[in-house]
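[User] Could I get a sequence and structure tokens?

[Assistant]
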Amino acid sequence: MTGAMLLSTGQYLARGAVVTVGLSLGMITVATCFGLMLAVLRLYGVGPLRLAAAVYGLIARGVPLLVLLIGSYFSLPYLGIDLPLWLVVVLVGGLYFAAYMAEVFRAALAAVPRTQWDAGRALGMRRLQLFTIVILPQASRLSIPPFLNVVLVAVKNTSLVSAIGGWELVAAGREIGERTMEILPAYLAVAAFYFVICFTLSQIARHIEKKMRHV
């Protein structure tokens, strides 16, 4: 490749990487919020809600994300629900990884010593106040390493978007490989972009974890 071609290829892959990061952030946001809710239901919910949360987790973790993406994207229009592809990916991917986030948060919440609850009650704190001020911050510190693992898996699973006609980093790499007939260099470049994204996220998480240790 000439210098101009390398520059244009890098810019095109960078655009795909931006789309990948955007989809990842959307999925992670949905997964975090819904996963925390599932974890709270599993630990503190009444019987039926606790059972429903457990069943949801088992089903979501037992079905491949690709199957859910294809089934949702091509089935929703028949139900009269016409959503843009990116929104389907964010919602389906987010709800899928919420099942994994729920286990992360459930383990972290359960690891907080029971004495913390007792101490909060002794100070006259209400249950919700005690949970948000005392329990949740401690669980957040404990959940950072496994949370990061789920985030990295979610980022790499955005590559499945190309299977339903979406465009992101892998699709951009495939287009470049087909256009230049240099398949291996194109996908090596894609792998390099994924490494940069995941390494950056790892460093950010490590920095946050160090700061929270001193809080």
